[in-house]
UniProtKB/TrEMBL annotation:
Protein name as annotated: 3-ketoacyl-CoA synthase
Catalytic reaction list: a very-long-chain acyl-CoA + malonyl-CoA + H(+) = a very-long-chain 3-oxoacyl-CoA + CO2 + CoA
A GO cellular-component term linked to this record: membrane
FAE domain: residues covered: 78-364
Pfam families attached to this UniProt entry: ACP_syn_III_C (PF08541), FAE1_CUT1_RppA (PF08392)
PANTHER family linked: 3-KETOACYL-COA SYNTHASE
E.C. no: 2.3.1.-
Gene3D superfamilies assigned: 3.40.47.10
Alphabetical list of InterPro entries matching this protein: 3-ktacl-CoA_syn, ACP_syn_III_C, FAE1_typ3_polyketide_synth, Thiolase-like
């Protein structure tokens, strides 16, 4: 990655350099290319008609098709987008003093004098059935009695979860903060002013012309959504590096009331963050782990039932919290089906598409017939699933016809780190790497589902052997203990 670092390395005094290819010039270039192709085709057709009318020799009729084929090939290669690579990523391993065993959590909430005995019993049941272990983490602000949920503590949490993973990613990839052209940060519940991206830019003295995007309110699917956004930006801005940061600030999301539909958030969400480096530079291919194959986004916010299935609102006492409705699993299933049906049409082999089409037709005429579930394992080797809870993981796995081994990464991530919102998918990928299961040529499907509701898919292809990952990242000290069985 040293070569990537040296390219476009601009001193701070001369940081404000315009893009070589702006959105406007890109659009004009595309329109010009299409116009030239249309004119060439029109002229060639006119010439062919002229040759026919003049009864010219056969060799003249062969020249024009060859010329058109050449023009088509030139247009195809000129307009073909550059490949986008996932160079590397980093996940936070929270400090041990942030660990919160169940007994500690329940003892603390019983001392807050905010929750009644029924609420404490409900949280105890939710914890023990959640699928997470005694090793998960909460930020220091939630270890206080009562919790400190004001702005200052939230900013401290931001610094605690973001700065270490940025440092680690820059160190692993050997690039400077000045080499970052695009910065995308997602955090659903905390949106300060200046923005979170501004905090990062200020800390690392990044360039004045960096393109920064602060994404909020997108829930657990935000990380995959931001990879899709990064892809679209890298399609426009050539020879660029993009960093995606994914986290959730828990101190602002703490609920201090007694409505059961809002108490689940306190029990399920845990501390975590991830930093991902994407690049479209040619030199990145030499050291990158993966190539981005495809992204797809689906949402159902247009439907009232889906929209209100998970929403942040005040309770009867004016206390803010996230309400999770009972029909959330059904809504999630509908959103997931819409996403995978379109993704499947793009990546599945013809045989799977055929049997799916046949089952749809049979279902229309024979009500008892079920819809054929395509076998995604024909094209995908590894699956990173939503970590919303053990029942959700198993239900998604069942819907996709996945085995225990294929949902293992999601179950073990939930067990070891809890639900870390949008960053959980990267802990799952880190688990697969630490287990040395990802090999060159393998494809990995990251499936994110979040409030809105929305479902986002990202497919990567491994482009080089991954060696020695077992002693790196958040799983380094415990990967030999996993998988843990049984979890039910």
């Amino acid at each position: 990655m040293e070569a990537i670092s040296k390219q476009n390395h601009v001193p701070a005094l001369h940081a404000a350099t315009p893009d070589q290819l702006t959105l406007l010039s890109k659009d004009l270039f595309s329109k010009l290319l299409n116009s030239l192709w249309a004119c060439t085709f029109l002229l060639a057709t006119s010439a062919e008609v002229f040759f026919l009318l003049q009864n010219w020799e056969l060799k003249f009729h062969c020249v024009l098709p060859c010329f058109l084929l050449l023009c088509f090939l030139v247009k195809h290669f000129v307009s073909k987008p550059s490949p986008i690579y996932l160079v590397d990523f980093s996940c936070l391993k929270p400090p041990s003093y942030c660990r919160v065993p169940f007994a500690t959590f329940l003892e603390n909430v019983s001392m807050f004098e905010l929750f009644d005995s029924e609420s404490i019993a409900f949280m105890s049941k939710a914890l023990h059935s959640s699928g997470q272990s005694e090793e998960t983490y909460l930020p220091p602000s939630l270890h206080y009695i009562p919790p400190k949920t004001h702005q200052t503590e939230s900013i401290k949490e931001v610094q605690m979860v973001l700065f270490p993973i940025i440092d680690d990613l820059l160190s692993k990839t050997n690039i400077s903060p000045l080499d970052i052209d695009i910065l995308i940060l997602n955090c659903s519940g905390f949106c300060p002013s200046p923005s979170l991206t501004s905090i990062v830019i200020n800390k690392y003295s990044m360039r004045s012309d960096i393109k920064s995007y602060n994404v909020s309110g997108m829930g657990c699917s935000a990380s995959t959504l931001c990879v899709d956004l990064a892809q679209r930006l890298l399609r426009v801005h050539k020879n660029s590096n993009a960093i995606v940061l994914s986290t959730e600030i828990l101190s602002t999301g703490w609920y201090s009331g007694n409505e059961k539909s809002k108490l689940l958030i306190n029990c399920l969400f845990r501390m975590g963050s991830a930093a991902i480096l994407l690049s479209n530079k040619k030199v990145a291919k030499k050291s990158a782990k993966y190539r981005l194959v495809r992204t797809h986004r689906t949402q159902r916010a247009f439907d009232d039932k889906a929209y209100f299935s998970a929403i942040r609102e005040e309770d009867s006492e004016g206390k803010l919290g996230v309400t999770l409705k009972r029909d959330l699993p059904q809504v999630a299933g509908e959103t997931l089906r819409a996403n995978i049906s379109i993704l499947g049409s793009e990546i599945l082999p013809l045989s799977e598409k055929f049997w799916y089409g046949v089952s749809v037709i049979k279902k229309r005429f024979i009500k008892s017939e079920g819809i054929y579930v395509p076998n995604f394992k024909t094209v995908i080797q590894h699956f990173c699933l939503p970590c919303s809870g053990r029942p959700v993981i198993r239900e998604v796995g069942k819907g996709l016809k996945l085995s225990e081994r294929e949902i293992e990464a999601a179950l073990m991530t939930l067990h070891r780190f809890g639900n870390q919102s949008s960053s959980s998918l990267w802990y799952e990928l880190a688990y697969l790497e630490a287990k040395e299961r990802v090999h060159k040529g393998h494809k990995i499907w990251l499936l994110g589902m979040g409030s809105g509701p929305k479902c986002n898919s990202v497919v990567f292809k491994c482009i080089r052997p991954l060696v020695g990952e077992y002693n790196k990242g958040p799983w380094a000290d415990c990967i030999h203990q996993y998988p843990i069985s049984p979890l039910d």
